[in-house]
C-alpha cells in the first residue's frame, strides 16, 4: 500500500521508539519528505490519529502548526503525513524557555475550544480503567494498591465536560522551527476533560520550573483544574504510568509513575 501511495519512496530515518509495535519512519518521494506510521495488529493509535487528523486538527494545520494528512487507512493501520520541519523540544534548550510553553498553551486552547459534550458516564469508566490497570502486572506496593482500590471505590462520578484532547501533551510531542512551536503524534487523541492535557506537564516540567506553568497558563487562559477532578486525574495518570511502563519495560518511566503516586497520595 505504501508503494502505491508513494511510489519510489526511500527511507531517510527511523523515528520509532522501539517500546511498542508502532513504527515511525521518515521517507523521501519525488523531492518531498513524509512521515509514515504503521501500527501493530492490536494497535488503536493509528485509528485515533486518523480520526484526529480528519476531525480536530484544522485549527493547527491551517496555521502550519501540525502535519497535514496525505494518506491513511485504519483497516491497514497505516498513515502518511507531510514532514513538518523542526527539532523536538524535549532534550533541547527550548524545553526551558517560557515562550515555548506560552505557545503550547495557545495551541492547546485552540484544540480544546472546538467542541464540548457532557458525559454522565466518563468518571465511572475512568475509575474502571484504573482498577483494570491494578489488575494487570505492575510493581505498585500491595499497601498502596489497597489504598487506591478503597479510594477509587469512594470517588464520586459527576458528569464531565469532554473536549478534543491530545492525550500526551508534553515537550516530546512538540517541535520548534525558527522559534515557532508545532505539534505531532495524535495517537492518544480523544474526547476527555480539558484538564487531562495538563497532567504530563504538571508532574514533569511545571514541577521543575513554576515559571513554565505560568507561561503555559498565560497562553492557554483560564485554568481548568478543579481540585477534586484534578486529584482523580493525577491518581489515574500515576497508576497508568507505573503499570504501562512496567509492562513495556521502560524502567525510568515506571519510576516516574511510582514517584507520581507517592507525591499525589502524600498531598492528601
Automatic annotation (TrEMBL):
Residues 1-268 form the Protein kinase domain. GO terms for molecular function: ATP binding; protein kinase activity. InterPro entries: Aminoglycoside_PTrfase, Kinase-like_dom_sf, Prot_kinase_dom. PROSITE patterns: PROTEIN_KINASE_DOM. Pfam families: APH (PF01636). It comes from the Bacteria. This is Aminoglycoside phosphotransferase.
